[in-house]
Structure formats: structure tokens, C-alpha cells
Design brief:
It is built from 3 helices and 8 strands. It is an alpha+beta fold.
């Protein structure tokens, strides 16, 4: 199901989407969201040729914009190496962005393990500690 909004609600959509998808939002994530919104916009018989001063890039398809942003959300997989060192593989990364691997034993408090910059769309992160107790992992973009 696709929802279309005119550009009058574009700012509200941007504010809402940015706050939901990127907490806290950084300059790169806001730029990505803005590109996704503008690329999802379409013209019709009411908007005429776009971009235009009245309609901007056209009518925003919020569902398509959010799906485009979701396609860039990092995905994690975990492997335990033979020396019991956890290796977290992050896919759907964006080259040039920094990713911080964090671990937790309780999900209540998180400790930053390491920071790495992606050079491709995939990143392998090694937790320097060997696994002696159950741990949860997440990746955040600073």
C-alpha cells in the first residue's frame, strides 16, 4: 500500500521520518532521508512538470521513501571464530560512514567495543575479547 502526500506536508514528513529512523540523526542520515524523499516524489496532472517552485519535486510517496531508507539499515550476523572471538559482519553499510560496534550483557547498558569506517557495503568487526559469557551486539552510526 502506498501513501502519497503533497509537498505541503513534506517538512512534517521529513521531521517525523528523521526522528523515527535516525536517533540521533547525523548529517549523513538526514541527507540520505532527503534524497529518498525527493526520489520517491512523482509528478501527475496536478503538479505538472517538476521540480517546480510550487510542487518542489512533486508528490511524496512516503511509503516508498521509508522503504528506500530501510534498505540501508545495517544488518548484523555473528560468527564465533575458533579462538572463541566473536566476529560481527555488518551488511548494507555505506562506504565512508563510521560504524560503532557495541556490546551488552544485559541490554540495559552498552559498551562501545570499536569504531570502523566502511569502505564497501560490508564490514567485518572483531570483538577483541573472547566470548566468556553471553553478549548482545548492536551497531550504531555516530
Amino acid at each position: 500500500m502506498a501513501f502519497s502526500y503533497s509537498n505541503i506536508s513534506g517538512r512534517a514528513l521529513l521531521d517525523t521520518s528523521a526522528s523515527v529512523l535516525f536517533q540521533p540523526a547525523n548529517a549523513e542520515s538526514i541527507a540520505l532521508l532527503m534524497v529518498s524523499i525527493s526520489q520517491s516524489a512523482h509528478a501527475d496532472s496536478l503538479t505538472g512538470t517538476v521540480p517546480s517552485p510550487q510542487w518542489g519535486y512533486g508528490k511524496v510517496d512516503a511509503y516508498a521513501a521509508l522503504r528506500a531508507v530501510q534498505a540501508t539499515v545495517p544488518r548484523l550476523s555473528l560468527a564465533l571464530l575458533t579462538n572463541r572471538q566473536p566476529q560481527v559482519t555488518v551488511t548494507q553499510t555505506i562506504a565512508g560512514w563510521q560504524y560503532v560496534l557495541q556490546s551488552s550483557t544485559s541490554l540495559a547498558s552498552w559498551l562501545s567495543v570499536l569504531t570502523n569506517t566502511a569502505s564497501t557495503n560490508s564490514l567485518k568487526l572483531l570483538d577483541p575479547d573472547t566470548l566468556t559469557q553471553a553478549r548482545f551486539y548492536r551497531v550504531v552510526v555516530p
